[in-house]
Amino acid sequence: MDFKIKRKSTKSAIAGGLLETYPHDLQMYKLPPVGDISLQEFETLALERLILLRCLATATTLKGLRLYSEEWCDFILGDLRSQGIKYYVKLCEKSGCSTQDVDLQARRKDHIAHFILRLAYCRTEELRRWFISREIELFRMRFMTMKGDSVDNFFTINNLCYTNISEEEKDELIINLRESTHHPNIDKMKFYKVKFFEVLDLVKTRKVYLKGGYAYISHKDFISVLTAQYRVHLRQSLAIACHHLGEIEQDERLVSLLKGLHQSYTGNDYSDSKAVIPIESLDSLSIKSFPLCMRQLHEFLRSTHHLKHGGRLQYGLFLKGIGVTLEDSLKFWREEFTKVMDLDKFEKQYSYNVRYNYGKEGSKKNYSPFNCLKIINNNVGPGECHGCPFKHSDANVLKNKLKGYGFEQQALHDVVDLAKRGHYQIACSKYFDVVHSSNIGLGINHPNQYFEESQKLLKGDLKLEPKKDIKPTIKHEKNDIEEMDFDENF
Amino acid sequence: MAKQYDESLLSDMLPIYYSRLFPQSLFCRWLTCGNYPQPLGNRELSFTLADDVYLRYLSINNQKELHTLFQKKCPYKLDIGPVYNTKPSIGRHDAVVLARELVFDIDLTDYDEIRTCCQEAKVCDKCWKFMVLACEVINTALKEDFGFQNILWVFSGRRGIHCWVSDHEARVLDSPGRTALADYMCLISGGENQYRKVHLGNDNLHSSIRRAIGIIDKYFNTILEEQEFLSTTDRLNSFLKIVPDEALRTQTQETLENMPSSSLERWETFVTIYNQYCKQNANAMRKIKYLVEELKIQYCYPRLDAHVTKGFNHLLKSPFSIHPKTGKVSIVFKPENAKNMKLNDIPTIHTLLDDSSKENAQHQANMRTAVKNFQEVVFMLEKTEAMRRKTEASVSIDF
């Protein structure tokens, strides 16, 4: 969106009243808001929206709730209530088309706040991705809680017209529809035909019947079509907003505010380390201070003298993050790899990779080590052992591994059980406590954070104290929220 | 046996191969269609020269330039990249990718944990069956589910196959689209620490999975016997690790260990045990409802290198490129003929150029067939492209 244009257009006055502008609780944010707003309201709206988005992130990552599940929604609504942001509760709980002034005001705030955050979050690719993921979650959640009438209204307002397939066509396909669509009562539903790329999330998870490039969806699946459109729209809008940042930043009052908004939460990305770690100490460190994902990669590398691409990336960046220099890193990989290949091959095929990780090749970007979410959502293929061991291991394999590390029965059971139930990061935190014989209950979001906390503990900077007194960990949790991101390829 | 292949002679053989045998004109026509509406010059080509010197961001404007480039550089390997918004040599890192064929790469090394006849770079006619099956499963899904028509299948030169989809919709599909499509096709996932790599849940089986199992069933017994998946203690143990239910596992182990080592018989016995077990334990049944299907998939279903499909700008070896290590030509084949392909019949550069060699006539003929297969795909593509442009033009006139 373009702030300048927005300012100019204020002169042509607001077109119509609030009711015409905001007929529905749920909006697609197609047009930027017009009108005047005080700096103070600007700031308040932005911060409240930020609380909302961060709340969505917390629900999924720190609380480990399944996306869009009932508990997930409840947690978010509860949190918003306790933070006193009532109008978002209203908008999220059951969207509708009421014409009361309170609702209209809420919609206005929602609209403006969304556009302010676009400005704050368009700066970098990473911020954009975080913002888009959260806004999509918000949109889906609000759509899901909508009642029948409101859904119809929403479609009319947004000009979404689709015609259902004929009964004959449906009868012909009914077996396939029953097989491939995950809804009860298929027989009573109307089905619609859309191109497969309009419902990629359903294609990806094999939840839709495909034939000849078309996806056959029921009305319940329209949320997929909508989110896909909304995602494209957001992506483009953020790119445009980014282009116009220069003009906006001529206004100093806004600059400090907008920059402050995202900067206060970007946190440490561990791409530069001040410490220097000698490679000779990696073996002992891997036992004492590496999270299991890295320890496992280290051991795999030491025993097979090779790691596939995914593993090299995950482990290589981690090593950079803890403070292994480029020279040492090259030496380290060379030493292992040349046990199974000649030096020439290593220099030609692999040293590029190592230098690339340090931003010395290709696009010369200084890459950040992977955080937990990225690792957890990684694909792990045959012959590979990267990823998160709590997710990407069979329970038996994990059990045996921990047993091999000398875990006691009870501790072992606890960790494996947490992993089984899908609480990977909590399992990791438990693993930390067992290894350090502590009882801190860290919130772990990043392997490099794990390493730093471990080092602090071992060097005695951090005292073994009960959970609630550990301030640094809580700070970390907040700092890393921005980085926690789903791979946007949904 | 033909004369041993000698890599050091490649620099002498390649110029002749490129000017006499490489289908330059068809190659350019194929890429030109695939580039539309951008000019051919916006497509990235990359060469690997002798001693692994790597040239990226090359491009050609026409067949003549291709010919000159071949003669000047004599690439050991030829890769094809995406279509950019500008000439790739100018844009480099800033260029935007506009289009590229939707590609699939299936490599037998990804089958190492299940195939027993060969490992790593080795490949034989037995493990080639995995490729035949993979080709059929993917080809069918691309045609029936996604409605694609212009699909080119290529032997990768050593131990795998590539697939290029040139339909307009496929070419302009964005990254999330490619990811979704790849994930739709991938049923096997998991690394070194996961034995059980297929999870079908307990809901209905998706139509595409049911169809894939139908295809697997055509080959399953042959592959099972040839690979002897269950015939030794080690293999039986890795099989048992995939069986999630402990009681069923123990029962299977006890029975199978005490019977003849034929894999087919052992498998059939397992299926009987499984069916009985499910009848008796309705509870356990829910968890392992599709165990037999899951096992079949884990042992036979195509193992895609999904990175290649997901990436917009992943380079992929060109058809009719020579594999520098084997001398084999990356021939184009018809998916329905994959099962008749013999690895020894795949033309190599040295037999093609040596008319005294015994296989020369056979390899020449196979090379001609491969070019003809390529030609068919290119003609078809040109036809559909022409039709598409016509409809597009008439639509824009309507407005």
Distance between the termini of chain A: 25 Å
Taking Cα atoms only, what radius of gyration of chain A do you get, to the nearest Å?
Answer: 26 Å
Number of strands of chain B: 9
Count of helical regions of chain A = 25
Mean pLDDT of chain B equals: 92
Mean pLDDT, all residues of chain A:
83
Oligomer: heterodimer
Kindly report the CATH topology of the largest domain in chain B.
DNA primase, PRIM domain
CATH architecture descriptor name of the largest domain in chain B: Alpha-Beta Complex
**Element string of chain B (H = helix, E = strand):** HHEEHEHEEHEEHHHHHHHHHEEHH
Radius of gyration of chain B: 24 Å
Overall structural domain count of chain B: 2
Largest sheet of chain B: 5 strands, antiparallel
H/E element order of chain A: HHHHHHHHHEHEEHHHHHHHHHHHHHHH
Describe the structure.
The complex is a heterodimer of chains A (490) and B (399). Chain A is mainly alpha-helical. Chain A has three domains: 18-143 and 236-263, no CATH class; 155-228, no CATH class; 279-459, no CATH class. Chain A has helices spanning 3-10, 18-21, 39-61, 70-82, 86-93, 101-120, 125-144, 148-157, 167-180, 200-204, 222-243, 245-248, 252-263, 282-288, 292-304, 309-322, 326-337, 343-349, 351-357, 372-376, 395-404, 409-420, 424-435, 447-459, 471-479, and strands spanning 191-195, 209-211, 214-218. Chain A has a three-stranded antiparallel β-sheet, with helices on one face. In chain A, β2 and β3 form a beta hairpin. In chain A, α3 packs antiparallel against α4, α6 (101-120) packs across α13 (252-263) and α7 runs antiparallel to α11 (222-243). Chain A is globular, with a radius of gyration of 26 Å. The two termini of chain A are 25 Å apart. Residues 1-15 and 465-490 of chain A have low confidence and may be disordered. By secondary structure, chain B is of the alpha+beta class. Chain B has two domains: 7-184 and 304-396, DNA primase, PRIM domain (Alpha-Beta Complex), CATH 3.90.920.10; 190-300, no CATH class. In chain B, strands 1, 2, 3, 4 and 8 form a five-stranded antiparallel β-sheet that branches. A four-stranded antiparallel β-sheet of chain B has the order 5-7-6-9. In chain B, α8 (207-227) packs across α13 and α10 runs antiparallel to α11. The longest helix of chain B has 39 residues, at 360-398. The N and C termini of chain B lie far apart (66 Å). At the A-B interface, α9, α10, β2 and α21 of A face α7, α8 and α14 of B.
